[in-house]
Structures are given as structure tokens and as C-alpha cells.
Amino acid sequence: MAWGALVGDLRKNHHPSSSLATLNLIVGLFNFGLNASPFITGRLGELFGFKRMIAIGITISICLLVISACAVDSLPALFVCQGFLLGCAHGISLPLFMTLPSQWFSKRRGLATGMVVSGAGFGGGAASLILRAILPSLGYRYSLLVYAAISTVTYIIGWSLLKVRKPPLRAVPQRFDTKTGLPPGIWRDGAFYSLMASVSIGVWGFLSPFYYLTEFTTKNNPSLDPNSLVVAVPLIVANFALAIGRVGAGLFADRIGPANAMLLTFFAGGILQLAFWSQLGEGQFGATIAFAVLFGLFGSSFFLLMPAVASQLFGLRGLATITGWVVTSQSPGQLAGATVAGVVLTSAGGYSGVAYYAGAMMLGGAMLILPARFMRERRLFARY
Question: Distance of CA 214 to CAs 218, 237, 283, Å?
């Protein structure tokens, strides 16, 4: 979530001949690796233990951050190390920590998951603030090393606090009668494909504001120092708002149902980009901050809802594996979404085109969750 604070410095001081669309392919490859691997790693966690697999993932992640810092002047090395491989390393842990709250909570599962996943927002906001402050003096390489050191301490503390709850034998069988670990019959269930299609399409527009807000603010506010922390304020507040919004969305999901909540967060994100971001012009710094806050609060919560929606639709059996498949459905959009937004930016000559493209994709995600929702619950205003 802090990539928007880094990409400007990377382009200015290391790869000035590369476009934003090209450099954003680094984070696209990271997101592809992050989201393409969980359908395997979720199953590995169930077979070999959550804590063991998470420890392997964070160790590899730290090593790759250090390698990326050393290889900052090589764009192919950044594509491979800071991009695809780092994403795969993070993908080892992703479906595991996302499903841990569902092991401990039943009545307040959405709120618990929201509080866990909100760490991405608080962490992204803190990382954006720190990186933007130290980049001018330390540069990209040493800033990334500082980030690796902070991540190491955070990972160790977080890992030491993890505790896995074994499901009761009579409630959830230890062995599944399918080779994949998925519940029998799920491949014939239209709700499974509806959920994956919703996430797969909606994610194409979800990350564009986070990746482009800093550059957008710099361009639309020429009176601001482009090297100052001020131009990163919208990105920073968006990340903190995302953290608060995910906690609120978890609580909201407990009240109206996770499937309904996912529909609404995709819809809100799409409308905010189409009707608000697209209309922002030069000198509207305060309005840009307002958009960042609103998008973080209301349009960025689908990610935490995935395991809650999966458990609502399919139960707890093989939940980490199911969540892994749903997360994997994001991989095309995570790979190319930011790059396509860069192409739209170049072709349209302004950020309004990016807002229309990204907003439309999030509205598509909202529409595609409807079949899964009505397959399980046909009443329009029912909690589901």
C-alpha cells in the first residue's frame, strides 16, 4: 500500500527513461505473485501448519527486500525480486492469517477479521509516512533497507503472538475426500464462480487511487514542493482511513451480512471514483484529501470480507483453501490493473480517464456478487 510513495523517487533518480506504466509493473508483478499463490499456500498451511508456513514466508520476504535494495538500478531484477518473488513470499502467509479470526470467532467474525486486516491500512499509512520522510535524504536503496529492518521487527512480534485453533474433530473432519482440500461439489456450485468473478473484476479498479494519488497530487498542485511530505498526505490518510474503514466494514458485515457488505463496498468504491475523483481539478488539495478519506473508509474493504463471505457461502470446511482460490482470482487484475491505468492515463491525457476506468471495474465487481448472494438468500433485504 506504500508503493505510491516509492515510485516517484524510483523514476526520478534511478529509471528516468521509464514510464509510470512500466514501473508500476513491479507492483503489478508483486500483486500477481501475492494473489496467484494462495490456492496452493492455503492448502500447504492446512497440511504443514499455519505458523511454520508463515515463518517461511516472512523469512523469504525479508531476504528479497534486501536483494531488491541492492539491485535497485536493475529494472529486470526489480521485476523479479521486488515484484513477482516478493509477492509469492507474501502469498505464503496471506490466506493463513486471513482465516485465523474465523477459527476463534463466530458471532463477531466480520469485526475480528476487519481488525486483523486493518493492519494493512495502518501499516501502509505508517510506511508511506516513514518512506516519504526518509527518501529525500537516504534514497531508494537505503530507504528500502530501513523498511526491511522495520518489517523484520514487526514480523517477529506478530508471529510470536499467533495461535492456531484446531477445529473439533466432530465439527470439521481432519481429512477431506477431495485431493484439492475443497469441499465436495464446490466446482458445480455457481456461487463459487460468482464470488471469484466479483473479486476478479472489481480488483482491477481498487488499487488505482493508492498507486496514483501521490503523482496526481503533485501534478494538480504545482505550488507544492514535489519532494515534500505534503504531496503524500492524500496517500497517507487514505491508508489510515482504509484501516478504520475495514474495522467498520467488519462490524457492518456482522449486522447486514458479509455478502451484502461486499456488494456495498464495491459499489461505493466505484461511485466515489466515477463521481468524485474524476471531477477533481488543479488546486483542489483539500478535496483530494476528502476523496482519499472517503475511498479508504467506504471503498476499500472487500479484501477483508473475502474469508467471511466464503465461510457464509460454503462453511468452515477447507476455508483456508477456499479463501486461497478466491484470493488467486484477483491475480490478473493485481498484475495488470495499475499498468492498464497507466496506459489509460497516457492515452486520455488526464486522471479523469483513470477514475472512469477504475470506477467502472469496481461497479462490475458489485454486480457480479449478486448471483452468489441470491443463490443462497432470495429475500432482497435479508441479512446475508
Answer: 6, 11, 14
Q: Write out pLDDT tens, residues 25-54.
A: 888 888 888 877 776 777 787 778 888 888
| Nearest in space to 325 (alpha carbons), one of 177, 190, 195, 207 | 195
**Contact predicate 299/265, CB 8 Å:** yes
Give the Cα separation of 335 and 30 in Å (integer).
Answer: 7
What is the rounded CA–CA span in Å between residue 322 and residue 38?
Answer: 9
Whole-model pTM over 0.90: no
Q: What is the pLDDT of residue 192?
A: 92
Task: Tell me the C-alpha to C-alpha distance, in Å, between residue 294 and each of 111, 137, 174, 280, 281.
Answer: 20, 32, 43, 14, 17
Q: What is the DSSP string of 15-71?
A: -TTS-HHHHHHHHHHHHHHHHHSHHHHHHHHHHH-HHHHHHHHHHHHHHHHHHHHHT
pLDDT digits (tens, 9 = 90+) for 90-104: 888 877 877 777 677
Query: 377 by DSSP, 3-state: which?
Result: coil
The whole-angstrom separation of Cα 49 and Cα 325 is: 18
- Measured over the CA atoms of residue 335, residue 46, residue 159 and residue 65, the dihedral's sign is negative
- Please state the separation of Cα 163 from the chain's center in Å: 24
Rounded distance, CA 370 to CA 192, Å?
12
Helix axes 258-275, 351-368, angle to 10 degrees: 160
The answer for 257, left when phi > 0, alpha when psi is -120 to 50, beta otherwise, is: left
Residue 92 to residue 327: CA distance in whole angstroms:
12
Count of CA atoms in the C-beta half-sphere (13 A) of 375: 17
Task: Give, as one character, the DSSP assignment of residue 84.
Answer: I
Residue 10: how many other CB atoms lie within 10 Å = 21
Task: Determine the Cα–Cα distance for residues 231 and 174; give it in Å rounded to an integer.
Answer: 52
Domains and CATH numbers, the chain: 3-163+179-376 (1.20.1250.20)
